[in-house]
Amino acid sequence: MKVSIVDLNNFSRYPTLSIGYFVAILRKEGIDVEVCSPLNFGVHGYPRTVKQPYWKRFSEFLNYWMAVSRASLVRRIRDTIKNWYRPGGNSDQIRITEAVEALIADTPDVLLISAYTMYHDICKNIGHLCSKKGIPVVVGGSGFYIAETCREWLETCGITAVYSGEPEQHFIELISALAKEGDFENIPGVITRNKPFNTAQPLTQLDSPPFPDFSDFPWKNYPNKIIPIMTGRGCEWGLCTFCSDVKTTSGRTFRSRDLTPVLSEIQTQQQRYQANLFVFLDLKLNSNVTLWRGLASGLSKLEKPIKWTASVHVDSRNENGLSFHDLKKASDSGLVRITCGLESGSESVLRHMAKGVKLSRMSKFIEDAHRAEISVRITCMIGYPNETAKDVLETVNFLRKHRNQIERVTLNRFANMPKTPIESKLREAEKEYPHIAVKELDISNGIIPYENRRMSSTAFLGAAYQLISEVNTINRKPLLEKAKEFEGAF
Ligand code: SF4
């Protein structure tokens, strides 16, 4: 039996973790598998925030202004430009379609696609190619948690089924049934034209799949070898009103692995790939404080030291594992870069977001992480529904106060994601947000567009420019020398 997997994710700095798991599960069962990674065919990746030139503040502001402009012509021009350059846009389509044509020349028994929903057009082409050869195609990924999206994708010619949820526990059963033309429709998480939307239950035994196999990824096309790893799925907090990560397939409910297999996986991957750079992809690595602390102790005893990076949440628990002592121990074990979500420097906005963060504690964390010689990256948001120009200026002040301790800021515009608490609130409590008009679900991009009239007011535009300028000032700095290998990775 032969299975081909097409990886339509945007990880330009390291392999896709879920694909590594699928490959390992298939190979353990003796199934022949081939991976198609677009990086191998000249499709360029999309790195996270990197060092910026000074002029970037102007282009970023122009982009912001075009996005919030009330003139529909301006927004249309922006959408056209964006469509050309976005992942999976026009420039990627030809290359990926040609690569898949070569991949299916040997007619695999099953073709799997792991994709973000923005790759719909490319998947249409792939479905068309596979239907001509009678190859069953299953598409899955974190965006397939909304019934409307799954329905739309099933209308695409050549897509046999869409998968929603974590597939590991049903994976072999699904592949065997598809390859042998057996009954696959009763498998949890499978959605077809005949079977309604459903989602597979979250995997509870996280240590049951074998360690991920990344041997099929085009290592020569990455700037360096960074190995992805996850110690848990979901987030211990899980309450932020805007967060779709805890609503999508692998983020539902918090589950954690044991420390011993995590350390063993790191040593195995070190040996397999001769690599010493690791990125922990947990939404919040300090969710399980015992594991987080154990990791710092365990990693400092490794025969071959590693460098690592992770995301944490500066929450309000008495013990959140982020004291100076904890951070110093993590730094001594190789933690060179840490990411956390500030989102806003306004207590009022943070309360509305249910972020579970106090600014005084966030300040202390940033100072301690910097003192422990860890490169600090922050994510910020602009345009949360209750945010005013004054709130934006409070974020500017917070960043300015910590300008010397933060090395990168990723600034996002508020995205209204389906099934999040704020999305329901915007629909159900319209009177609370008279400045916001919510539109219909954009099925291709998996978001619900909105127009926030406040964001295009003169006061808000002025505050946005100040925020973008402050972010640019921080992002122009070089990274801490020891963290440079992770530039753009996280
Ligand atoms: S802490 Fe992070 S992952 Fe957890 S709910 Fe909030 S935004 Fe989502």
UniProtKB/TrEMBL annotation:
PROSITE patterns: RADICAL_SAM. The keyword Iron-sulfur applies. Keywords: Iron, Iron-sulfur, Metal-binding, S-adenosyl-L-methionine. Gene3D superfamilies: Cobalamin-binding domain, tm_1862 like domain. Residues 219-454 form the Radical SAM core domain. One of its GO terms (molecular function) is metal ion binding. It comes from the Bacteria. Pfam families: Radical_SAM. InterPro entries: BchE-like, Elp3/MiaA/NifB-like_rSAM, rSAM, rSAM_horseshoe, rSAM_sf. Its cofactor is [4Fe-4S] cluster. Signal peptide: none annotated. SMART domains: Elp3. PANTHER family: ANAEROBIC MAGNESIUM-PROTOPORPHYRIN IX MONOMETHYL ESTER CYCLASE-RELATED, BLL1977 PROTEIN. This is Radical SAM core domain-containing protein. The lineage of its organism: Bacteria, Pseudomonadati, Pseudomonadota, Gammaproteobacteria, Cellvibrionales.
